[in-house]
Amino acid sequence: MYDFNTLRQYLSEGRGPELLKEAFTHRSFAVENTLSYDNQRLEFLGDAVLETILSEHLFTLYPGSPEGDLTKMRSALVCESALAKLARQLDLGSYLRIGNGEAESGGTRRDSTLADLFEAVIGALFLGAGFEICREVVLDIFAREFPEPQKMLIEINPKGQLQELSQHYWNCTPDYRIFHQKGPQHDPLYQVEVTLRHWVAYGSGKNRKLAEFDAAKNLYNHLYKAGIRF
Asked: Does 217 reside within a domain?
């Protein structure tokens, strides 16, 4: 399992230590300490490196998937919440050099800050250790947390994915209905049932749309586990 110390070993020679220092320097810290650098340039580079590595990975992993689905999967893998999750798994936020005001407002816990930090670290790894090592590290980190990228499509648009699946196999569409609503008017909870042929699943949410999304995701995951997938 990778963590800060493991990544630091890859960046222990040559420009590595300086690159790592730059990657962990937030702009607010640079401003407060009158530094001439921060991690934004490495973030820019890391973003491009991640897209290249993950594009190749998805292209190879799903030879039958169309360009649109590959793009959606890549977008899900590199979205802010996904990268922030990986940064937390690696405990990167604990080592971020951040300004006092930003720290007081919870900057080291913010998804946007952690996602940027993760990209900056990948940029530093690319420059300091080379593409092949960077690729190996990236794929291992993502494989541990997101072993089946195709399943991430359901997180983006569960109703759309379920409908595509149902039309692909049975040329029909799922049917949704609200079967219960409870709670006060200002804070309701909707419960929805989705039916597809002989399968039924349930979901709940603060409004009908969220409840339908939850039900669709539950049914899609059930079908996926049963081997019914693209």
From this structure: yes
Question: Is 230 a domain residue?
Answer: no
Of the residues 98, 126, 153, which one is the last residue of a structural domain?
A: 153
25-37 confidence digits (pLDDT tens): 999 999 999 999 9
78 falls within a domain: yes
- Whether 119 is catalytic: yes
| Whole-structure pTM value | 0.77
Point out the catalytic residue in the list 119, 193, 212, 214. 119
The full DSSP string for the chain is: ---HHHHHHHTSSTTHHHHHHHHTB-HHHHHHTT-S--SHHHHHHHHHHHHHHHHHHHHHH-TT--HHHHHHHHHHHTSHHHHHHHHHHTTGGGG-B--HHHHHTTGGG-HHHHHHHHHHHHHHHHHHH-HHHHHHHHHHHHHHH-S-GGGGHHHH-HHHHHHHHHHHHHS---EEEEEEEES-TTS-EEEEEEEETTEEEEEEESSHHHHHHHHHHHHHHHHHHTT---
Q: Which of 22, 38, 43, 47 is catalytic?
A: 47
